Amino acid sequence: YHTVSSGKTLFVQAPTGVGKTMSAIFPSVRAIGEGKGETLFYLTAKTITGTVAQEAFHILREKGLKFKVTAITAKEKLCFQDTPECTPEKCPYAKGHFDRVNDAVYELWTTEEVYSREVIRAHAEKWQVCPFEMCLDLSIWVDGIICDYNYVFDPNVHLKRFFGENISGDHIFLIDEAHNLVERGREMYSAGISRQSLVALRKKIRKRFSKLARTLDKANRQMMELEENLAETGKGYQVLSNPGVLPITFLTISGELEEILEEKELEEELRREILEFYFIVRDFLNVSELVDENYVVYTENSAEEGFRLRLFCVNPAENLGEYLKKGKSAIFFSATMFPMPYYRELLTTDRDAYGIYVQSPFPKENRRILIGSDVSSRYTRRNRAEYQKIAGYIARCVWQRQGNYMAFFPSYRLMEDVLQVYEEEFSVDWVRCVCQTPDMTEQEREGFLEEFQEREGTLVGFCVLGGIFSEGVDLTGESLIGAVIVGTGLPQIGSQREILKEYYDKKNHCGFDYAYRYPGMNKVLQAAGRVIRTKEDKGVILLLDDRFWDRDYQEIFPREWQDRTGCRLDTVEGAVETFWKRFT
Could you read off the pLDDT of 205-227 as tens digits, one per residue? Predict the structure, then answer.
């Protein structure tokens, strides 16, 4: 409340389940009610965390709050069409939309208090208008907006009604799960262009648009020169001092693409391909204007795109700050914002930002943290014997008490290998396994989580560390009584991670910490946070990797984890059994 009132920035680390959402929303709403703020933006990385914010507003409304809130949902989820085609020719809701939308928004605003996805779609259907555009128009008239980070920070997607050029207000930004904004920020302000995409477009248009073909040829030659330089280094990537003359060439290409897109006779498929490439070029040019000491320009041979030039925003704080300035106050909060100086450096340029570390109010005796000292997820140790050991740990942990458990793995491959061994050697009738799969639909995700509402028997969910089920999932009480975390969560070695490491080494920080250890440990802490959500919850957290005993990891464990103890495959069963005996 005092941070908002004085227009400052605050970083809060508080354990999962203590009520961070309400603790951020209530004082912010109060400040707005007293004229100390204008619009409340509740920003999330995932849809599921936005749902928690909606529930908090619902509780406050039941207590008499008068505060209109809308959630901005992705266009694809609101659209009535199978694929959004936003032209009057393709979409009946786009035809005449502007003639009807003002009346539609006015009726929605004056007759409804809650603007759920269903309510917005129903009103859009009634008035035959685009539900997504109607939702954006409505946002100007409400007091609070729940939306993805993109709608505030992304230069391509931000709400121009609030954050366009020379537009600002006394907005309050509540940034939930703020640790996610580091990587998301890097994505938003980075851009790349591949030689493959140049060549592919040139093939398609060379006979019809010879002028554009010649300019694409020129860009291709410039990129081939960079590719030859990269080959000479013998490395997977090469850091450059700047992007050279390519932005000038792409500026010419951008102008020529705009001329072509104005042609009426362009076939639909060709128009779509040209437009797609135009957006790539536009993003590249926009980002090239931002390149400064917070960027690294490099070339690499990418598995997906072939040779490409990339403008990589290593530290997004400066760019994020440009949008934060358009509001009054920002509150960054998360259960895993440790070490705090790391997040403050990457998320804000405000050197006077406040920081709070909230101690866990939960009784320590309600949970047991065990670290397996004779097991590892290192690549060099990945073999059948190690998989048997990991599967054995999981089995011995879940056999001690009936209930629901989750086992988190650093990759799908390792998860599937261990699951296979588990089912072959440790399967018992009274333990059921469910497994996360890549590209799950929303219904499949919901179905997966519904399994954990069952109280009968024992269920083990095999999941990926850092995935959709290791963050923002609220499984209280008996819904989850244990988490087995395999590995330290280190990101895969690649060009981007190595560039981060080199960049921060040069800045006199520990590059390995910034590129690998801190992001990895964040995933571990998030997954562990699924177990204890309320003061009544009880559970076991089992960390399987001998690296957790290294001093570098011991120093970044939360203060509440001081009672952690070690175990081995032959002692884990006894340790878990002793813990559960306290409650039987």
Answer: 998 999 999 999 999 999 999 99
Give the integer Cα–Cα distance in Å for 142 and 132: 15
CA distance 142 to 149: 18
Task: Measure the CA dihedral 193/197/202/203, to 10°.
Answer: 170
Q: Tell me the sheet residues that pair with 148.
A: 44
Distance from C-alpha of 355 to C-alpha of 375, rounded to nearest angstrom: 36
Instruction: Give the pair of three-digit tokens for residue 521.
Output: 């440990």
Q: What is the DSSP letter of 73?
A: P
Phi and psi at residue 174, to the nearest 5°: -105, 110
DSSP 310: E
Give me Rg for the CA atoms of the chain: 26
User: How far apart, in whole angstroms, are the C-alpha atoms of residue 232 and residue 223?
Assistant: 14
Helix/strand/coil for 547: helix
Question: Distance (Å, rounded) from C-alpha 500 to C-alpha 516?
Answer: 9
Distance CA 353, CA 314 (A): 21
- The SS3 of residue 272 is helix
pLDDT tens-digit profile of 486-528? 999 999 999 999 999 999 999 999 999 999 999 999 999 999 9
Strands 458-464 and 482-486: unpaired
Q: Are 11 and 355 in contact (CB under 8 A)?
A: yes
- Kindly write down the DSSP assignment for every residue of 477-527, as one continuous string: GGG--EEEEES--PPPP-HHHHHHHHHHHHTTS-HHIIIIIHHHHHHHHHH
> In terms of pTM, does the model score above 0.90?
yes
Token pair listed for 396: 């011995």
Amino acid at 380: T
User: Residue 137 phi/psi, 5° resolution?
Assistant: -65, -40
Neighbours of 181 (CB within 10 A): 23
**Parallel, antiparallel or unpaired: strands 295-302 and 404-409:** unpaired
State how far the alpha carbon of 4 is from the alpha carbons of 9, 13, 162, 544, in Å: 8, 17, 19, 42
Asked if residue 339 has a cis previous peptide bond (ω within 30° of 0), the answer is: yes
187-to-264, 265, 292, 346, 526 alpha-carbon distances in Å: 34, 36, 16, 13, 21
Q: How far apart are CA 319 and CA 472, in angstroms?
A: 26
